[in-house]
Amino acid sequence: MSTAPRIDIDPAAFWADPYPMLAKLRQEAPIAFVPQLGSTLLTRRDDISISEKQIDVFSSHQPAGLMNRLMGHNMMRKDGEAHQAERRAMFPTVSPKTVRAHWTALFQAHADRIIDAIAPGSRIDLMRDFALPFSGECLKSITGLTNIRYQDMDAWSQGMIEGIANYGGDPAVEARCHAATSGIDAAIDDILPVMRERPDQSILGVLLASGMPMDSVRANVKLAISGGQNEPRKAIAGTVWALLSHPDQLALVRSGEVSWLQAFEEYVRWISPIGMSPRRITKPWSIRDVSFETDERVFLMFGSANRDEQHFERADQFDVRRDTSKSVAFGAGPHFCAGAFASRAMIADVALPTLFASANKLELADDEPVRIGGWAFRGLQNLPVRWLH
Fold first, then answer.
1. pLDDT (tens digit, 9 = 90+) per residue, 230-271?
2. What is the distance between the alpha carbons of residues 163 and 166, in angstroms, rounded to a whole number?
3. CA 296, CA 116: separation in Å to the nearest integer?
4. pLDDT in tens, 330-383
5. What are the two backbone dihedrals, phi and then psi, of residue 307, each rounded to the nearest 5 degrees?
6. Residue 288: helix, strand or coil by DSSP?
């Protein structure tokens, strides 16, 4: 165990809203051991940015970690050349060139089809009726698993996300995660003959073509599903909610003074969909007056870094005019999100402008509260709106 001060948290309150406790930690104990999470937390942006790049100390390789155990050994849990080799194999799918030339048009077709099905003048849950199916359909295309329903994609993603954040060891949560990974394996097995005969630009297609071992192919497809569904749907619904809740800022975007990309980047700084990334200490190490032991687990709290008062004025406020260049919403080191460019295209180039152009007016419904939760993975759980054409 590190020599960091021991700080207790209320897990339920932390799940409901981690930001007050994270602010307290940044101020009073920026490196703290939290027994309820069984880990030492790094909460300041500079500590996290520096440490994430020191892969010889803060290793992503965690043989006994939840992700390895439940989803297989994917590139997120590898370091150095092992990580880079699998990242290079996936790059042809998610490169800026491929996203612009191939995926963006498909994203637009998915968005148009889903929006066309929304009845004019209806009261909808934008999370359920647009963000979730749009993210799911885009992910089906990118992964190559076009033989499933978007509902399956969403359920599998949620099952894995909950499983790898199951630090309390709830057996029901773990069982749902196993069911999700089994479903993905079955879907891969089902489409493999087609993919081997007619390889495409999808993740499954390029990984098979690279000669990657099948266990690693499966693990990396599961990785893409776990984050590629959960984070985009939360970021879409969340950015729409933030803009509708701040009409003056929505006006700035509509007028062109601020881009949709700026609005999206500010939202994922403000409420980071990926709030934490775990690391394993590989050798005795010290940061200022805190010493770490070998094999200790630490959490890099990205959600806290993105509200660090040393880098962001009025950090708790949503402000589309803000300079977000110091944000670590997509990571800060060699594990920077491989799908970041595709996510920006999905959300800033397609989802947000298409939604606001398709409805003459979107307004928050007043008959149901918006629910937000999570700390390792955080975001909206619903978004009731009135869709006025």
1. 889 999 999 999 999 999 999 999 999 999 999 999 999 999
2. 5
3. 51
4. 887 776 777 888 999 999 999 999 999 997 789 999 999 999 999 998 999 999
5. -120, 20
6. coil
Q: What residues contact residue 181 under an 8 Å CB cut-off, 6+ apart? A: 70, 71, 72, 156, 159, 160, 222
The dihedral region occupied by 41, where left means phi > 0, alpha psi between -120 and 50, and beta the remainder, is: beta
CA-nearest of 274, 378, 363, 343 to 134 is 343
Q: What angle do CA 271, 277, 283 make, to 5 degrees?
A: 150
What burial class does residue 301 get, using C-beta atoms within 10 Å of its C-beta: 0-12 exposed, 13-18 middle, 19+ buried?
A: buried
| Residue with tokens 């803009």, as numbered in its chain | 243
* Average confidence (pLDDT) over 310-315: 96
For the chain, helix, strand, coil in percent to 5 are 55, 10, 35
* Strands, sheet with 31-34, edge to edge from the N-terminal-most edge strand: 31-34, 39-42, 297-300, 277-281, 58-59
